[in-house]
Amino acid sequence: MQINIRKELTYGEKDKAIPAFARHFYVYIMTDDAHSLLFVGLTNDLFRDVHMHRDGKMEELPQGKRVQKLVYLEYYEGLSEGIGRRNEIFNDTLINQVSLILQANPQWEDLTPGLETTL
Fold this sequence. Notes:
GIY-YIG_endonuc_sf, alpha+beta, 31% helix, globular, three-stranded antiparallel beta sheet, 6 strands, GIY-YIG endonuclease
């Protein structure tokens, strides 16, 4: 399934449009600059969560730990699908999590530039 993220999201084989107000969920992985810490999350407001991570306001992380780079992203229409996928990635081994990132983003580039205009 190919996903294009923009104001009106499109998905699937028939490129069916989803209204901007529709519920949507993102499973994402963020990391620190050294790639020594991975955070797997689920949100319906990716822009907000990325900024909360960068500002150190996410309670799930240990005190003093911060992830700065969004390195992996998946889109889901249903909450239950998103939760299932988030749990699958979260409970997987570190090697498999890194492999997932490397397949989609081999340079570990930060995917956040332009989020304001694409979400």
